[in-house]
Amino acid sequence: MIMGVFMVLQDVSEIEKKMEEAPDSAYEIGVAIGTYLPFVVLILVAYLFYYYSKKRRGSE
User: What is the domain count for the chain?
Assistant: First the structure.
């Protein structure tokens, strides 16, 4: 648990460093998309699993 919190804090500092060193705003947008896109995909996959299991349970 503590290691997970440490990893998240470390990632935030790396993202902030990349934003400060960004040559232009397009790079900053790319960093933001690359940071949040995996979480969005994970949430979508989790929702699909939930939806299909709920649908399957209702049909039985």
Answer: 1
pLDDT tens for 21-34 read 878 878 888 888 88
3-state secondary structure 16-43: HHHHHCCCCHHHHHHHHHHHHHHHHHHH
Residue 15 · residue 35 · CB < 8 Å: yes
Count of beta carbons in the 10 Å neighbourhood of residue 38: 9
Range of the domain at 24: 2-59
Q: Is the pLDDT of residue 60 over 70?
A: no
